[in-house]
Amino acid sequence: MDTTIRTAQVLGLTSSIFLSGINIGASLLTLPILYHHPTSISTPFFSEYYTRGAVTLVPLCVFSSLCSALVAYLLHSQRQLWAVAAVATLSQPPWTLLVMSKTNNRLIAIAASKHEQEKVGNEEVVGLLRRWAWMNIVRGLLALVGGLVGVYALILEQQI
């Protein structure tokens, strides 16, 4: 096996699974802590957390997808599996833009305005955070599918 292919396989699948863990962990471990804090604390925290995540995780998503796409290009016998891995992981940004952006934008708008923080009820914010959490779990599952398809491809490769 070519070193380039093996390296891209390992980096593609591990970075995708790592990305998935960050997304799912944020939804199950971090966000629920904010449900019990006032809006003046929870929304600014969310805004910064979301911004830091976007700056870090979007490049990781692209890197993972490029690694898997490279394997799809170079390894003809498993082209479809690695293409699925790349597309599954790279579907995170479109999911974010198409499905999550309304919730993201509302939470960020509340965080940016003291007036909005005072105006909205804690129930609305908790509802938005809960909605974001389940949508983020789906986003994490997209990357997990990418990583697991890569693992499956490696297992199949060993059986040949």
Describe the structure.
This protein is an all-alpha fold. Helices cover 91% and strands 0% of the residues. The chain is elongated and about 60 Å long. The model has no long low-confidence stretch (mean pLDDT 96).
Attribute tags:
160 residues; mainly alpha; 6 helices
Global structural class: mainly alpha
Q: How many strand units? A: 0
Radius of gyration: 18 Å
Query: Per DSSP, what share of the residues sits in E-state strands of 2 or more residues?
Result: under 5%
Helix content: over 70%
Mean pLDDT: 96
The termini sit apart by 13 Å
Main beta-sheet annotation: none
Write the layout of secondary structure elements.
Elements: H1 3-34, H2 39-74, H3 79-90, H4 92-112, H5 114-119, H6 122-159
Summary, kept brief:
The protein has 160 residues and is an all-alpha fold. The chain is 91% helix and 0% strand.
